[in-house]
Amino acid sequence: MSTDTKPDIAIDRSVGDFSYDVNYEYDAGTGLSDKTIDYIADVKNDPEWIREFRHEAYRKFLEKPMPTNWASKDLDNIIFNNIRYYLSQGTQPKRSWDDVPDEMKQTFERLGIPEQERKFLAGVEAQFDSEAAYSNIKAAVGEQGVIFVGSTEGLHKHPEIFRKWFGKVIPTGDNKFSALNSAVFSGGSFIYVPPGVKVKHPLQAYFRINAESFGQFERTLIIADEGSEVMYMEGCTAPKFETSTLHSAVVELVAMKGAKIQYVTVQNWSPNVFNLVTKRGLAHEEAEIKWIDCNIGSRLTMKYPGVVMKGRKARGEVISIALASDGQHQDTGAKMIHAADETTSNIVSKSISVGTGRATYRGLVHVPKHLKGCKNNTECDALLINSHSRTDTYPSITVRGQGNSCQHEASVSQISEEQIFYMQQRGISEGAAMSLAVNGFVNDLVQQFPMEYSVELKRLIDLEMEGSVG
After folding, report:
1. Averages of pLDDT over each 10 residues, the chain, 470 residues
2. What is the pLDDT of residue 453?
3. Using CB atoms within 10 A of its CB, is residue 101 exposed (0-12), middle (13-18) or buried (19+)?
4. HEC sequence for the chain
5. CB under 8 Å to 125, separation ≥6 — which residues?
6. Residue among 197, 241, 218 at smallest CA distance from 131
7. Distance between CA 123 and CA 119 in Å, rounded?
8. Where are the domains of the chain?
9. What is the chain's Cα-based Rg?
10. Would 391 disulfide with which of 74, 296, 382, 435, CB 3.0-4.6 Å?
């Protein structure tokens, strides 16, 4: 295929590739030690039990080896002592955009956050490096008793709810990076939806990394009480630096009896970001937790959203799209743990590998022998754009006992030259033809994203396809 034809796609490549010089009021410096953790705890005015939690997590982080069954060669490039673990201009988020510091406000205005809030969101939290710069919920939603604040505010103002579930879905020692997050966490969202309340419009958080050689470690906890419903959306960007940036979040979801939680992620990290995230939900009787996940950008992403179906007739679902471009590895998947009768799980994963990009699906499904009436469906489809692209699938499915069912299917395909040639004969440029083919491949999943995110996702795919011809 010729590289002379320029695709007719007018997209600004620098939409997230910018940063501002910021004079931070609080800076823990470079490197990680007990002193670093005490600095963070002091700045955030942590209660004593959180300080002890952090130090215990730090000990577990030091004890745990780097993962060896993952992308270990890439992980060797993370130098923990070169990272800045806490930077902020203040720990209290603003309730009005007019009060947000100028450089932060300019960042989020360029990314369209205030506009989105006015149009369709029930509440917004915007995090800049270590802390939320802005956090607000619409009055009508707040009057329903919905709590939507940053994790620090949730800890201090709602300790009776926060402490009950914090660290209970994902143990500190789950893996090395969950331990690291537990030691230095800052930012993230705390949401509580009272019984029977159905939040009609999405709640959104936006996580922005601005500083170089920085680590962002937000911690999100969402609790949907009995019969309630909520959708939470998050977006992520960072500027491109020569040095490595680390993003290592922990997300815990709790859906009580009959509750429904949808968690939507569209990330567009710069290619120097290591995105190593632990996400898991706990679904009680007849509850439903659905992860809708799109991974674009980063040098390495390792993310496997999971659901523990604890109650009878609970349901878990992961819908994911991953796009790996040159020099990128998207190691993504899902974990479904059936822990009660008549539970149902569904995994649908689609990946696209461009140039030398590598996409990996890594999944776990577990149904123990004493359960009955459990069902799982797993689908993994991969699309290769070039001859040097790579895709791998590592499903681990264990279904024991009688009366349980599981089905798994996987496919790998490549965009054909005939398909591209056919579209070019009808006046479509080569790059646009590639975008059409890729968008057609993921279209059925994109339809499950909220409209404003599905439009953005299509734009991101178009942008990635610009450089894929040849």
Report:
1. 33 42 78 96 96 98 83 79 87 59 57 53 63 65 89 94 97 96 94 96 80 87 98 77 85 98 88 93 98 90 96 97 91 97 97 91 95 96 88 92 91 82 83 82 82 69 63
2. 67
3. middle
4. CCCCCCCCCCCCCCCCCCCCCCCCCEECCECCCHHHHHHHHHHCCCCHHHHHHHHHHHHHHHHCCCCCCCCHHHHCCCCHHHCECCEECCCCCECCHHHCCHHHHHHHHHCCHHHHHHHHCCEEEEEECCEEEEEEECHHHHCCCCEEEEHHHHHHHCHHHHHHHCCCCCCHHHCHHHHHHHHHCCCCEEEEECCCCECCCCEEEEEECCCCCEEECCEEEEEECCCCEEEEEEEEECCCCCCCEEECCEEEEEECCCCEEEEEEEEEECCCEEEEEEEEEEECCCCEEEEEEEEEECCEEEECCEEEECCCCCEEEEEEEEEECCCCEEEEEEEEEECCCCCEEEEEEEEEECCCCEEEEEEEEEECCCCCCCEEEEEEEEEECCCCCEEEEEEEEEECCCCCEEEEEEEEEECCHHHHHHHHCCCCCHHHHHHHHHHHHHHHHHCCCCHHHHHHHHHHHHHHHHCCCC
5. 93, 132, 134, 135, 136, 148, 149, 150, 189, 204, 205, 206
6. 218
7. 11
8. 26-421
9. 22
10. 382
Tell me which residue has tokens 């130090």: 55
- The single-letter code of the amino acid at 457 is L
Within 10 angstroms of residue 200's Cβ, the number of other Cβ atoms is 12
Count other C-beta atoms under 10 Å from residue 410's C-beta: 14
- Strand partners for 231: 262
Question: What pTM did the predictor assign?
Answer: 0.87
Q: Contact, 286 vs 314, CB < 8 A?
A: yes
Alpha-carbon 461 to chain mean position: 17
Tokens representing 413 are 């395909």
56 CB-contact burial (10 Å; exposed 0-12 / middle 13-18 / buried 19+) = middle
Q: The tokens of 240 are what?
A: 């491109």
